[in-house]
Design goal:
The protein has 7 helices and 11 strands. By secondary structure, the chain is of the alpha+beta class. It has one domain: PPM-type phosphatase domain (Phosphatase 2c, domain 1, 4-Layer Sandwich), CATH 3.60.40. It has a 6-stranded mixed beta sheet with strand order 7-6-9-10-1-11. Helix 1 runs antiparallel to helix 2.
Length: 265
């Protein structure tokens, strides 16, 4: 399955203009088409640790599992693999938080996009998002697991009201908050020309969706510059939170490679 899609990607992460520590974590394994953004919760260094654990565990476990399946010609279900890995990760973070006051309350959101063959498996918990630009149309693939999203779904507030809601950052699902987790895992088709954006809420809280779409439409293949522009827009609007983006372009046949793979602390 790996290698049937040609992917270019760029990664950028920044602490923002207010917070001294970047508690986001980002990672990619282009050899298997896996991209991950995690936004740590819990403050101090605990959130950073939870987010780093999430990215490391997903990249490591899924890479090893897929390699073993290919080597031994075993059937492999990416959705099952994603769920198993996130369940194990949830337990690991939850136990660590119980065993140390330093890590008390730590957890993390996660958004993972796994492109294999002509499909993309998406796993997420929390309010980090995945968008897809296709034929000029920007679609939010994931729906936030958040208090504000629940109010939106119930018709109790408008989209604009959700942006200013005092409890807008309260997530209803995250990895590590309880002994059990309920990540959402779905799969989607992938087409040549698709441009994917994975991001933490440090982007979407500061930059309107219409502006994100405009920047992606103007990308013209320069993923690194576009990733920097997205971060700059968030910081220019106040940069109240850490901000991380991964851009993935589905291209013609060939090897996957990175245009830019950098994180600023």
């Amino acid at each position: 399955m790996p290698g049937t899609l040609a992917l270019r990607f760029a990664i950028k992460s920044h602490p923002g203009m207010v917070r001294p520590l970047n508690e986001d974590a980002v990672g990619a394994d282009p050899a298997i088409g896996l991209f991950v953004v995690a936004d740590g919760l819990g403050g101090y260094n605990a959130g950073e640790i939870a987010a780093t654990m999430a990215v490391s565990r997903l990249l490591g476990d899924l890479g090893r599992g897929l390699t073993a399946a290919v080597c031994f010609s075993k059937t492999y279900d990416p959705a099952v693999a994603l769920r198993r890995t996130l369940f194990a990760l949830n337990g690991e973070i939850f136990r660590a938080a119980l065993q140390s006051t330093m890590y008390e309350g730590m957890a993390t959101t996660v958004i993972a996009a796994w492109l294999l063959g002509s499909r993309m498996w998406v796993a997420h918990a929390g309010d980090s998002r995945l968008y897809r630009l296709r034929d000029g149309n920007l679609d939010q693939i994931t729906k936030d697991h958040s208090f504000s999203q629940e109010l939106l779904d119930a018709g109790m507030i408008t989209v604009e009201e959700a942006r200013t809601l005092p409890a807008k950052n309260l997530v209803t699902r995250a990895i590590g908050t309880s002994p059990n987790c309920d990540p959402e895992v779905r799969d989607y088709d992938v087409q040549r020309g698709d441009l994917l954006l994975l991001c933490s809420d440090g982007l979407t809280e500061m930059v309107a969706e219409a502006r994100i779409r405009a920047l992606l439409c103007a990308c013209d293949g320069d993923l690194a510059a576009t990733a920097r522009r997205l971060i700059d827009e968030a910081n220019g609007a106040g940069g109240r939170d850490n901000c991380s983006v991964i851009l993935v372009q589905v291209d013609r046949a060939g090897a996957a490679h990175a245009d830019d793979l950098r994180a600023e602390s």
